[in-house]
Amino acid sequence: NKPAVDLLEYEDNLVIKVDAPRVSKEDVSVKMSTDTIEIEMDFPEYISEDEEVKILRKERCSGKTKNIIPLPVEVDLKEVKASFEDNELTITLPKIRGKKVDVEIL
Q: What pLDDT, on a 0 to 100 scale, did the predictor assign at position 10?
């Protein structure tokens, strides 16, 4: 299972929000490339191995997860910011705007 992820596009930024219940900030890793972002989380096991239990349905995350998210636009890797509050990871990725340059006519 993977945690729920939202990818939102605003005029100047992309924003990624990831639900991370039972996860601490130290168990989160974020890596970037020019066209993808990779988010790894280590969710603690919530059912003890010595418990004698039959799992009828399991939707909550446990163990290591990895999400690789393709980015729809180019972002400024130097200006990416991330925060972790209330068991939610928020990553803000500023878009790179095309720059206009004067071209000298010869």
A: 95
Q: pLDDT tens digits for 33-43?
A: 878 999 999 99
The pTM for the full model equals 0.83
CA distances from 6 to 68, 80, 81 (A): 13, 17, 16
In order of 38, 88, 104, the CA distances from 23 in angstroms are 17, 9, 55
> Tell me, what amino acid is at 79?
E
CA 74 to CA 99: how far, in whole Å?
A: 13
Structure-block tokens of residue 41: 């989380």
* DSSP-based three-state secondary structure for 25: helix
